[in-house]
Amino acid sequence: MMYNQPQGEPFPQQPGSPSQPYAAPQPYPGRPQQPVAAPPSPQQARPRRKKRSVGLIALAVIVLGLIAAGYFLQKGSPDYAAVGDCVAGNSSEALRVVECTDPEVTYKVVGKVEDKSQFEFHTSSATICKPFPEARSAFWKGERGGSGYVLCLAPAK
Known about the structure:
The protein is an alpha+beta fold. It has a domain at about 80-155. Helices cover about 25% and strands about 20% of the residues. It has helices spanning about 40-75, 120-125, 125-130, and strands at about 85-90, 95-100, 105-115, 135-140, 145-155. The radius of gyration is 44 Å and the shape is rod-shaped. The model has no long low-confidence stretch (mean pLDDT about 75).
């Protein structure tokens, strides 16, 4: 008989030995696995888009409404008067642009002179509208101590 000779089958590899790759741990027996969540259906995403669209449309309507309101509120302001426009009112606080067919028309704008201070207006009011011979009245508006504009006005016919 020979000693040191292998007899029978060699020992099998042990789990976790260096020659075998590491395996993921198995769940404990008796503990149920959690089900995989299904992806959301397209029907669930649609109401969010619809709400966002409605919100954006509402915001656009509000902004346009504010712009229109500002336009109509400023429409009568003498700041927007141009040569050929008609104005109504007999004081600087009451002067406003109106349609020339309006029965309240008092003057027609025959000239507009920009960048004049209130001081220049008061010291040269007789000559400031001289380039507009039909002008009989003048109106200045601007910042106190700063520049503004002068409307040269002729009586409405």
